[in-house]
């Protein structure tokens, strides 16, 4: 029977990224995980609006105007809060001699750069980098896998 593997692929790819970045996977039914996926999916859809595209060129002006870009900003803030909570937990439980994941490695580098005033290794940079890895990795990888499955279905002899 036909089925759409889209959600399964997004969840699988997101969980792999979570294991690399956060050092832990989420259960596919975990509310926090599902909320995170929903926020990212909603932002992908909202990015196509003209207001969201104008926000990229005129962010100061668009901050005062209503539209779907406002929802995108709120979603990014929620995802940022999610990552900041995980970062805070990592800071409490970190063992510098044994990094568990990307966040621990970044925190270790932050500690090494502590005296450097020009360092770009900050909690804000860590949060944004984590978000970038999540956004870039989840969408592109799951779509590539979906297209790969479609090609395999179309050309089963291969």
Q: Please state roughly what percent of the residues sit in beta strands, choosing from under 5%, 5-15%, 15-25%, 25-35%, 35-45% or over 45%.
A: under 5%
Oligomer: single chain
Using DSSP, what is the number of strands? 0
Terminal CA distance reads: 21 Å
- Mean residue pLDDT: 88
Rg: 18 Å
Low-pLDDT parts are none
The shape is: globular
* Class from secondary-structure proportions: mainly alpha
* Integer count of domains: 1
Number of helices: 7
**Main beta-sheet strand count, sense and barrel state:** none
Order of helices and strands: HHHHHHH
Q: What portion of residues is helical?
A: over 70%
How is this structure best summarized?
Its cofactor is heme. This protein has 158 residues and is mainly α.
Features:
mainly alpha, 72% helix, 158 residues, 7 helices
Give an overview of the whole structure.
There is one protein chain. By secondary structure, the protein is mostly helical. It has helices at residues 6-21, 31-46, 50-57, 59-62, 68-93, 102-112, 123-154. It has one domain (5-146). Helix 1 (6-21) runs antiparallel to helix 7, helix 3 crosses helix 5 and helix 5 crosses helix 7 (123-154). The mean pLDDT is 88. It comes from Aramus guarauna. Belongs to the cytochrome P450 family. It holds the Pfam family p450. It is found in: Endoplasmic reticulum membrane; Microsome membrane.
């Amino acid at each position: 029977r036909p089925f759409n593997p889209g959600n399964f692929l997004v969840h699988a790819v997101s969980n792999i990224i979570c294991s690399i970045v956060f050092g832990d996977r989420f259960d596919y039914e975990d509310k926090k995980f599902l909320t995170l996926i929903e926020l990212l999916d909603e932002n992908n859809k909202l990015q196509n609006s003209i207001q969201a595209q104008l926000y990229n060129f005129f962010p100061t002006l668009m901050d005062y105007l209503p539209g779907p870009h406002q929802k995108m900003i709120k979603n990014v803030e929620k995802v940022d809060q999610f990552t900041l909570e995980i970062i805070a937990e990592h800071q409490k439980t970190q063992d510098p001699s044994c990094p568990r994941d990307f966040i621990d490695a970044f925190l270790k580098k932050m500690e090494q750069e502590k005296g450097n005033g020009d360092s770009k290794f900050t909690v804000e940079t860590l949060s944004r980098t984590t978000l970038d890895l999540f956004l870039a990795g989840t969408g592109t990888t799951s779509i590539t896998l979906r297209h790969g499955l479609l090609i395999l279905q179309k050309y089963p002899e291969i």
